[in-house]
Amino acid sequence: MIAFVAFSLKRAWQGFWRNSLMSLAATASMVLMLTLLSGMVILFLGLNATLDYVKGEVQVVAYLNDSATAQDVAQLTSQLQAMPQVSTVKYVSKDQALKNFQVSEPGVADLVDSLPSNPLPASFEISLRDPSDYIDVATFLRDQPAVDSVQDIAKTVSQMTAVINVVSTVGIVVLLIVGLTVLFIIVNTIRLAVVARAEEIEIMRLVGASDAFIRWPFVFEGAFVGLLGAMITIGLLMLVQAPVASLLSSFFNVLPVQATAMVGQNVALMVLGTGVGIGVVGSYVSVRSYLKR
Questions:
Q1: How far apart are CA 155 and CA 137, in angstroms?
Q2: Domains in the chain, start-ordered, CATH in brackets?
Q3: 149: which DSSP letter?
Q4: How far from 54 is each of 32, 47, 185, CA to CA, in Å?
Q5: Which pLDDT belongs to residue 98?
Q6: Residue 239 near residue 287, CB atoms below 8 Å
Q7: Do 162 and 94 contact (CB within 8 A), yes or no?
Q8: CB atoms within 10 A of CB 270
């Protein structure tokens, strides 16, 4: 078995360089497709991080009656924290609400100070695990005697949920299309290499070589193409990492989302596994279909 694998690897290496033009064409196609695929994955991960941040920022704000007691606040806090839809609960007192308003609106701070009493109500700022849980939490709050009103964010939540669903669906569909395109190109490129060596294959059949003996050198050759393409792609990604990361940071500068390293371990492993995997699968399918004729 070891001798067969060693022989297949040797034949694959010889075939790779014997048909260098075809091998380089297959490698170039692999690099192009892997670069596109990895770019889509990086963009998809960036959009996911942005959407996760925005989802975490969706809050239900409940304004309390001025008559609400400390006991009412403590009881409502416990009830909210026990709800599975709720991520965090923050209580903002009347004094803290006034301070926050004065910081955010310094131009009218003197006007607020001239009022006989603090007009701002105490409130709860409630972060949700999922924006679609808004209705359940808002309905619960509206039934509480200590709650005066609940901020209506139904439209915002609906729009955010729609955006999240659309981006997720489109991202998955695009990744599938790119992956299938990679496989299609590699299958046809390797098939051209097999056809170019049709005479050699027929001679091997005439002397009694089995299909496995003929097939595996081509499979390993496809693995070489995938490995070389993946290594070149990773190198290209590392070269453009700094400028592209800077571009992404400026593009998402309205959100506190940091652009992480593009060529992390996960992305590199994805590129390497996809390249070798598609090279192997494409070669196997091409040779198998040829040998069946």
A1: 15
A2: 2-54+160-291 (no CATH), 59-152 (3.30.70.3040)
A3: E
A4: 33, 10, 38
A5: 80
A6: no
A7: no
A8: 16
